[in-house]
C-alpha cells in the first residue's frame, strides 16, 4: 500500500514536472517567436537604413568622382597645354640644332670631298705615270719578244725550206729513176707487142705509128683517171704525161665533153707535170 502511494506520488511529480517543462517550452517558443518577429522587424529596419546609407554614399561617391574627373580634366588640359608648349620649344630648339649640325656636316663633307678629290687626282696622276711606264716597258718587251719570235720563225722557215728543197730534189731524182724504169718497162712491152703482132708475109703494111711514137704512159696512175677515162684520153690523142701536162683545163673539157666537169682536171695536169718532170 505504501509502495502504491509512493508510486502515485512519484508519478504525479513526474507528470507535474513534464507539464511544467512543456509550459516552459511553450513559453520559450512564444518568446522565441516574439524575439524572431522583433529581429525580423529590426533587420528590415536595419536593411532599409543600410540601403539609405548606401544610396547616400553612392551619390556622394558619384558627386566626388564627377568633381574629381572635372578637376582632373582641367588639370590634364593645363598639363597638355604646358606639355605642348614645352614640346614646341623643344622642337624649335631641335630644328635649330639640326640645321646647325647639317650646315657643319655639309661644310665638313665639302672639305672632306675636296681633300679626297685632291688625293684621288694625285693618285690618278701617279697611276697614269706608272701605267705609261708599264705600257712602254710592256711594248718594249713585246717588241723584243716579237723580234725573237720572228727570228726563230725565219730560222725555222729557212730550215723547213732547206729540208723541203732537199726532199723535193730527192723526190724528183726518185721520180726520174722510176720514170726511166717505167719507160723502159713500157718500151719492152711495146717491143714484145710489136713482135707478137707483126703481120705475116704478104699482109698489108702496118699503120703509121702514133705521132708521139710508140710510148704510152699509164695515165691511171693519176688520181681520178680510171680505165674508161684513160680510153677517152687516148681517143683524144693524149697518151703520155707530157701531152697531158701541156694541155689546159679548157682544152681537156672541150675534148672530153661533159665527162670531166665534175673531175679536177687541174689536179690531173699538175700530177702529169710532176710525172713528166716539168717544173
Describe the protein in words.
This protein is mainly α and 279 residues long. The protein has helices at 2-196, 227-235, 241-245, 249-256, 265-276. The longest helix has 195 residues, at 2-196. The N and C termini lie far apart (197 Å). Residues 197-213 have low confidence and may be disordered.
SSE inventory with pairings:
Layout: H1 2-196, H2 227-235, H3 241-245, H4 249-256, H5 265-276
Radius of gyration: 74 Å
Q: Ranges with pLDDT <50 over ≥5 residues?
A: 197-213
Class inferred from helices and paired strands: mainly alpha
- The number of distinct helices, counting runs of at least 4 residues, comes to 5
The biggest beta sheet reads: none
Report the β-strand fraction as a percent range. under 5%
Query: What's the β-strand tally?
Result: 0
Amino acid at each position: 500500500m505504501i509502495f502504491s502511494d509512493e508510486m502515485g506520488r512519484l508519478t504525479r511529480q513526474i507528470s507535474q514536472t513534464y507539464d511544467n517543462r512543456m509550459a516552459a517550452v511553450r513559453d520559450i517558443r512564444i518568446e522565441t517567436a516574439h524575439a524572431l518577429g522583433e529581429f525580423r522587424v529590426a533587420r528590415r529596419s536595419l536593411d532599409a537604413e543600410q540601403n539609405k546609407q548606401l544610396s547616400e554614399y553612392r551619390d556622394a561617391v558619384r558627386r566626388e568622382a564627377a568633381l574629381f574627373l572635372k578637376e582632373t580634366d582641367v588639370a590634364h588640359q593645363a598639363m597638355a597645354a604646358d606639355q605642348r608648349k614645352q614640346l614646341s620649344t623643344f622642337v624649335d630648339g631641335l630644328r635649330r640644332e639640326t640645321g646647325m649640325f647639317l650646315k657643319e656636316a655639309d661644310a665638313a663633307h665639302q672639305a672632306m670631298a675636296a681633300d679626297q678629290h685632291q688625293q684621288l687626282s694625285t693618285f690618278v696622276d701617279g697611276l697614269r705615270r706608272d701605267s705609261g711606264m708599264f705600257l712602254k716597258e710592256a711594248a718594249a718587251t713585246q717588241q723584243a719578244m716579237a723580234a725573237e719570235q720572228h727570228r726563230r720563225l725565219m730560222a725555222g722557215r729557212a730550215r723547213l725550206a732547206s729540208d723541203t728543197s732537199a726532199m723535193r730534189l730527192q723526190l724528183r731524182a726518185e721520180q726520174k729513176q722510176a720514170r726511166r724504169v717505167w719507160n723502159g718497162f713500157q718500151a719492152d712491152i711495146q717491143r714484145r707487142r710489136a713482135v707478137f703482132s707483126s703481120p705475116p708475109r704478104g699482109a698489108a703494111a702496118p699503120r703509121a705509128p702514133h705521132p708521139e711514137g710508140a710510148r704510152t704512159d699509164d695515165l691511171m696512175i693519176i688520181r681520178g683517171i680510171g680505165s674508161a677515162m684513160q680510153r677517152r684520153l687516148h681517143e683524144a690523142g693524149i697518151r703520155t704525161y707530157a701531152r697531158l701536162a701541156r694541155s689546159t683545163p679548157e682544152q681537156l673539157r672541150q675534148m672530153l665533153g661533159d665527162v670531166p666537169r665534175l673531175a679536177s682536171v687541174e689536179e690531173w695536169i699538175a700530177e702529169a707535170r710532176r710525172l713528166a718532170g716539168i717544173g
